[in-house]
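Please check this today:
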Amino acid sequence: MIAAPLPWLRALKETARSGLAVERTSLTPLTALRGACGVGLVVGLALLIGTPQLAVSSAFGAFASGIATFQRSWRPRPVLALAASSGLAISTFVGYLLVGLPWAFILLLALWAFMAGMAWGVGPTSGVVAAFNIAVMLITVHLPTSVLGALSSAALIATGGVVQAGLIVLFPVRPWGERRDTLADALAAVADYARRLRHDPMASFDPEPLIEARSAAAVTPRQARRRPRQLHGYRAMAERFRPVLASLADPVVGGAPMVGPERDRVRELLAAAATVLDATARAIRRGDRVRLPDQALDVLRVPESGPVLSGPARRAALRLIALTDDAVEAAQEPVEVTRGGVLARVTWHVADREGRRRDFPDRPPVVDASLDGPYGPDPEEVAAELATARETQQAGRKAAGGKHTPAAGHALARERHLHMPTLAGLVPVALRAFRRELHWKSPILRHALRVSAVVALGYLLGNALPPAHGYWVPLTAVMVLRPDFSRTYERGIGRAVGTLVGVAIAGTVMALAGPGPYLSAALAVVSVGFLYLLLSTGYVIASVCTGAYVVFLLGILGADWYQTAYERAGLTALGGVLAMLSYALFPAWHTPLLRDRLADWLAATGRYAMAVLDAFAHPAEHAPRQVREALLDTRAARQDWEQTLSRAEAEPVRQHGRVSRLSRRSAGEAQSALVTMGRACMLLEPHLPGAHPSFRPDPWAADFSAALASDLATAVPAVRRSEPLEWPSVHEALARWWEQADHPPPVALRTAELLTDALDDLARAVTPKPRPRS
C-alpha cells in the first residue's frame, strides 16, 4: 500500500470501526416526514382497496423512491423518485415472469447486477439507486401469485413513485436549498481563505467547495428559467476571487513586503474582501438581501493618501476592488449598508441601468497617481487599465438599449448556465461511460463482474439452504458491495450488525404484540420515517431502520412472514460475509493505481502551467477559456488522486512488480509539490495581459513553456514506470530568462522560478530511493 501496509487484521479493525461509526450531521425532519407520509399513503390506500400483497409491493415502490430522493444528486427530486419507481416496476414484472424458470431468472439477475455495477461509471447516485432497485426487486418478485397480480404490483410500485414525486411538488421543503448552501459554502470558503492569507500568505486552499459549487450550478433548461436570481453568477465570481487574493497576499509574486505599510494595506483589503464574501454567502443561504458594514466599503476604495501599493500588488488590489464591486452588483437588488455607532442607520443602494451604485467602488478609467509607488507608474499596467476601462464602457453602451435587469450592463447578469442533460440525454453519457470502463484494470468493470457473480451465487446458495426466503443472501450482497475495499467492508460489517439489531427489535415487537395488518403498516411507516431522518448519520443506523421496516412490512402478510426474522438475520450475515470474501478473492486494489493517478495530475497541472505561460507569450491569441479548461482538468485530476490515495491507505496490500511503491511520506511530498505547482500558476492568473496592441509579447515565457512541454513528455511516463525525473530543459530555459530579465524581474519570471522549485521537489519525492546494500 503505502510505506507500512496495513495487515488484514488491522485493516478489518479500521473498516469495522468506520462501519459502526455514527456521525453527527444536520437532520431534515420535514423532508423525512414528507417521505414517510408518502409511504403511509400508498400502504394505507392499498390495504383499503386491495390485498396485503399489493400493499407490500406498493410500499416497496414508495420506499425505494423515497431513498432515491435522499441521494446526493443535483437532479430534480421528483425525477429521481419517478426514475427509481419505474425501474423497480419494470424489473419486478419481468422478474416475476422468469422467477419460475430458475436458470433464466439467475441469468437475468446476473445481467441486471452487471448493469447496476457498471452504473457506478455514470456516478455514485446511479450506482446506489441501481443496486437498491435490485435488492428490493429480490423481495417483490416473490409477492405476486399470478401474471395479473405481477402487473398490478408493478403498477402500484410505479404509483408509489408518483405519490412521492407529487408530495415533493405539492409540499416543497426549502426549494433550491441545497444549491444555496453549496454556493454559500464556496463563498464562505473563499472568505475564510482571505482571512487566513492575512497571517499566512502561503495558506492552503481546498478546492472541493468550488468543485461542488460547479456541480450544483449544472441545471436543465427548465431549472435555468426557474432558479432564483441569487444563484446566477456568484460561482464564477468566487472562482475569480481566489487567484486575486492569493496574488495580492504573496510576497514573491505580489511583491508586498511582509512588514510595513504595504503589508498593512494588503491585510486591510483581505479582511474587507472576506467581509463582503461572508455577507454575500449569508444572503444566498438565507435568501435575504446583502447587508454590508460601511467600514468594509470604505476600505475597498482607492485611497487618496496614506500607504500605497506598487507593481503587481497594485494591479491585484485594483482587481480585488473591482471584484468586490461585482459581488455587490451581482445581487441585482437593493443592498443594505449598515452604519456603525450608537445611532446605527441603514442606507440603501440601488443599481442604475449600467449596474453602478452611487458611493460604491468603481473601476477607475485612469490609474490614481497615489498608487504608483516610488518608481512611478508602470506603462504596461496603465495601458492594461485603460484597455479594461474602454472594454467596460463599450459593454455598457451595448447593453444600454436592451432589456435590463437592475444590473443588466454587468457581465454577471448574462443568462448563462452549465448544462445538465435530461434523463433521455443521459443515455449517450451512460454509454460513453460504459465504453470508457470496459478494460480489465477498471475498478468499475471488476466491481460489475464481482456483483454479477456474487448475486447469482448468493441466490443459488440461499435457495439451497433450509430457511425460507433465501433471497436475503443476494439482497445483502448487492447492498454491501462497492467498487473499493474500505466501503465494501465498512458496509458489510455495518449491514450485518445493523440488520441483526433491527430484526431483533422488530421481531420481538411482532412476537409480543402480535399486531394486525394496519398496526404493522403503521410501525413500518414509523421505521421508514426514522430511516429517512437518520440516513446521513451512518450505515449501521440506516441498516437498523431498514431491517425493522422490512420485518414490520412483511408482518402485513401474516405470521409466517415475520416469524423467520431471526433466520433472516443469519442470512444477512451470510450475504455480508459472501460480499467481503468476494472482494478479497477478486479485488480491485487502488494501491497500484497511485503512480498512474499522480502522473495524470502532473500532466494536467503541466497543461495548466503552459496555458498560463502561453497567455503571457501570445496575449493577442490568448483565449480565457483555454486557461479555465486547463484549471478544471487539474482539479479533476487532483480529486482522482486524493480519492485513490484515501482508498489505498485503507487497503491491506503492498504493490508488487517492478514498479516501486509510493511510501506515505513520498505520496505526501509529491502531493505538496503538485499543489505548489498549481498555486504558482494560479498566482499568475490575475496578471494575465489582455488582447490589446499595447501589450508586448514575452518571448521568454514562450521559451519556458516549450521547455516545460518537452520535459513533461518524458516525465509523465517516468512517474508511471517509477523512473528518475529530470528537468534539464526547464532549468536551461529559466537560466536564459534570468539572463535577459530586467530589475525588478517580471511577475511571469517569478512564477516560473516557483514552478521550477516545485518540479524539483516532485522529482525528489517520486524518484525511487536506492536500496542499501546488505
